[in-house]
Design brief:
- The protein is an alpha/beta fold.
- The chain folds into 2 domains: about 140 residues, Rossmann fold (3-Layer(aba) Sandwich), CATH 3.40.50; about 250 residues, no CATH class.
- Helix content is about 45%, strand content about 15%.
- The strands form 3 sheets. The protein has a 5-stranded parallel beta sheet with strand order 2-3-4-1-5, with helices on both faces.
- Helix 9 crosses helix 11.
- The protein is globular and about 70 Å long.
- It starts with 5 loop residues before the first helix and ends in a 10-residue tail after the last helix.
- The model has no long low-confidence stretch (mean pLDDT about 90).
Length: about 400
């Protein structure tokens, strides 16, 4: 079975003496549970696994019950160490305080119980970790899969990666595109919206939330004002509501609205947004053409290619700790993606074989003294190289 690079990190940490809770974070269906299973099965350490999926959100005592069961197993079997794994921990309200209590108790009594927590709701995990567990945990962040990973694990070609995206669970379904779309829609879109957003947020118009996702995903790689978006939505709403829903969809790792880059914060926030999915599969479940036709349509393939580059950038943004924007002054003078981290700015222009010349990069560099300007595609870095690297490496 294919091992991602985070495997070595978790394996190494679990062999160390008990020091930190290991928190595996990432969007749905990127392989968090698979990574955990690979590691615990490779280690010569017993483990117990408890999923929180079917546990009522208010049943806080469940966490203590899991801990007590693990401790009992250690006593009964005379184990010197044990790994406790809890999946989707963020579903339990007040989870971080309960985890802190149990972890500190084990620390005080020298109980060698090592802990792995898994979760797909980044915002809820971050809040709990910051509120109660400072100094007690380490993050292992799993981003969306790169082209190199999909190629090496499943034999994906570049065109397949651009169209079908980077969800490993869907890789073997691409021969049946209806089945592939059903999987992406059910296992990822529906599960994220229904289990991660609607359960944890007060949403007054669930239908509008879903429509906002569908429209913004279909427009991935393009600019569209909130006013024009509302004009295409069937359910009534206002720009503030739609912007709020997009923020929730972004936090859930589905789709985001990129602001135009500016040194003026107000101009950033008031700009026309450019929509971008975190994984190109989320855009192409709405593609009007099947894979074979889409790859032959030069104009369409160019748009899908730009969205795939953007998805790769966004899919690594949280782990890479950088922000993403776009930039434009006038037609023909634009930069597709702008990355910003610790005062450094990088401009990236995407070039497919259908693109014409663009002087945007040179003007952007002159105006903002950018750290790097980069072309991905014709005349620049090979797409397969860019889509195989972590964009955060550009800041080194």
């Amino acid at each position: 079975m294919y091992q991602r690079e985070q495997y070595r990190t978790l394996y190494s940490r679990m062999q160390e003496k008990r020091r930190f809770i290991q928190v595996i974070m990432g969007p749905r269906q990127v392989g968090k549970s698979t990574l955990m299973k690979q590691v615990v099965n490779a280690l010569d350490i017993p483990y117990v696994f408890y999923p929180a999926d079917a546990v009522p959100a208010t049943q806080l005592s469940w966490i203590g019950d899991c801990w007590n069961a693990a401790r009992a197993k250690m006593r009964v079997e005379g184990l010197k160490e044990l790994i406790l794994v809890i999946d989707e921990i963020q579903k339990i309200k007040g989870w971080s305080e309960a985890v802190k209590k149990e972890w500190d108790t084990d620390t005080f009594y020298d109980v060698n119980l090592k802990v792995i927590l898994l979760g797909s709701s980044r915002v809820m995990l971050d809040k709990g970790l910051a509120d109660s567990l400072e100094g007690r945990f380490e993050r292992i962040i799993l981003p969306h899969w790169s082209f190199a990973e999909m190629r090496d694990a499943f034999g994906f070609t570049m065109d397949q990666f651009i169209y079908f995206g980077a969800y490993p669970g869907a890789a073997e379904l691409i021969g049946d595109e209806d089945r592939w779309r059903d999987y992406i829609t059910g296992a990822i879109v529906d599960a994220t919206i229904n289990k991660d957003i609607l359960v944890n947020e007060k949403i007054s118009k669930p239908a509008l939330l879903r429509q906002t996702f569908e429209l913004s995903a279909a427009y991935s790689g393009l600019e569209l004002s909130y006013t024009k978006m509302i004009g295409q939505l069937q359910d009534a709403g206002n720009t503030t509501t739609v912007a709020g829903y997009l923020n929730l969809l972004s936090q859930a790792g589905l789709v985001c609205a990129l602001n135009k880059y500016s040194v003026d914060l107000a101009r950033k926030k008031n700009s026309v947004p450019k929509y971008q999915v975190y994984n190109n599969a989320l855009k192409n479940i709405y593609c009007i053409k099947p894979f074979a036709e889409a790859t032959q349509d030069r104009s369409l393939r160019g748009r899908l290619f730009e969205s795939a580059i953007g998805a790769h950038i966004m899919g690594n943004a949280y782990a890479g700790d950088y922000k993403v924007y776009y930039w434009r002054t006038k037609p023909g003078c634009e930069v597709d993606y702008v990355l910003e981290k610790k005062g450094l700015v990088i401009g990236i222009e995407v070039k497919s074989n259908t693109d014409t010349g663009n002087k945007g990069l040179s003007e952007f560099k002159a105006r903002y003294n950018s750290y790097i300007t980069l072309v991905v595609g014709d005349g620049g870095m090979k797409p397969e190289d860019f889509l195989s690297m972590n964009p955060a490496e550009l800041f080194r």
